[in-house]
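I would love for you to help me understand the pair of lines that follows before we discuss the fold together.
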Amino acid sequence: MSCRRSQQFITMRTFFIVLSLLVIGFAQGAPKPPNIVFVLSDDHSYPFLGCYGRPEMKTPHLDQFAAEGMKFHRMFTGAPQCVPSRATFLTGRSPVACRITRFSSPLPRDEITYPEILKKDAGYFVGVLGRSYHLDGSGRGPPSTARVFEANQLQTFKERFDYVDATGQETIPATMKAFFDQRPKDQPYYLWVNFSDPHHPWNSGTNPPDPAKLNVPGSLPDLPGVREDLSHYEGEIEHMDGDFKRVLDIIKERAGLENTLIIFTGDNGMAFPSGKGNLHDPGLNVPLLVWWPGVIQPGTESRALISGEDVAPTCLEAAGLPVPTRISGKSFLPLLRGQPFEPRQHIFAERGPHGSSTFDENVKASGVDYSRAVRSDRYKLIYNVTPSHIYSPVDSAGDPSWQDIVKAHEEKQLASEFETLWFTSPRAIYELYDLESDPNELRNLAGQPDMQDIELKLKEALQEKMILDFDYLPLPLALPPRKKAGSRKQTPEKDPSREKQFIQKDTDKDGVLNWQEFSKGRGQADAEGWFKARDQDGNGTLSREEFVTGKVSNPPKKS
């Protein structure tokens, strides 16, 4: 072998040795994907935890969990009902997109959940346990329904997951033991834990807060029955806090808490008026606490808009997996890591049939209601397609809170804003709220002239979402009505030369010309005459359209 060829051989051999060492080094140093635990409380509205500013509530374990992790203030579920909301969490898509807006529907087999992706692409052992996960159909219906389910094999979760249990909150310690017994040693795992608290009826709290000492949210009237129900509701959350601690203890004992991402949130809001089954914030805004040691800076908080659609892509990215394009959620993993994050501009939600309700002439909105919502940082638009359905709260119409509200209504002692909200029939098709000045959503601004632009932008955002998700409801924006032949109104001609003038004169760039901007460089009389002639709506400013119009009715006479 020549000296030159020998040197080439040594060089190539050295290259492959170095490459092999680099590959081995990267493999050994690559971070392991985290174990992921998703804990869901039932009918749990924000801000009902001590850490969110409810001092009467005794929730020490969740409060400590929040202090050691990240607390979110504006987490919104995809629907104010457990079945469609859970579908959103598991698929990263809206309930409309994954075809599960009817409460009793099973999740279609071709809708892939993110735990299935974790299992297939990252080798996770995946399980679900506790209260019913609700995505194999309600299980309640006539024999004809059962036959369809059986003939078409519509219940799929025992195929999707390695471990499936739905025996209830009280069996969680035993079923968690079974889950970890079946999990292969050192295999990463995903576990979905479902609590039934604080689902109605509220009877698990042993020492609930004093009704007289709690703070009634502004979205509810301060009545004795409301206080009584709130006390029982908070008592259930306190009970669940103890069970949450047991879940953490079992994880620590069986698998350790290192390299474990734990997400705690609610499936939808509280079963109170304007809560569960409603697209107002008490029905959609739920707690969100995320804990991940070594990744999340303890005690951090966020007011970014987060949707139920966002949990799936966040967990996939945390496991180092790409997010499928069919997922419409936005990962908030950068927030957890303390990295720059571009928040979403809108969250969306839908409402459809509830429970086993069917349609008849006496149906109320609690049973069947078709509506959609879009919420921005400041404003919310609700689009009601079945406004003639009389309002009634989901699950709690027989409780002291609603009974006291009805009594106050009958005795004409209920505040006018609650009268409008719950006892107007038909209800408004559009509801528009300024959440900065009206966080309790009690003053509907839809149709007001000064809110037209905001209302239109929200309708456009909702229209886009409904189109992309193939929503079956009528869209909120339609073509303008056709004009009859011979009645066409001529569009005012525009003078192109005035476009540049408008831009130059609009010095504060607010899109209109005030008197000072318009009159600059003109004689007083001439400016006054033309300003008045062009100010067609008489609002004291000139819009772009008013300024660039070539022909003006009643122009000032030349002196």
User: Anything to note?
Assistant: Residues 1-28 have pLDDT under 50 and may be disordered.
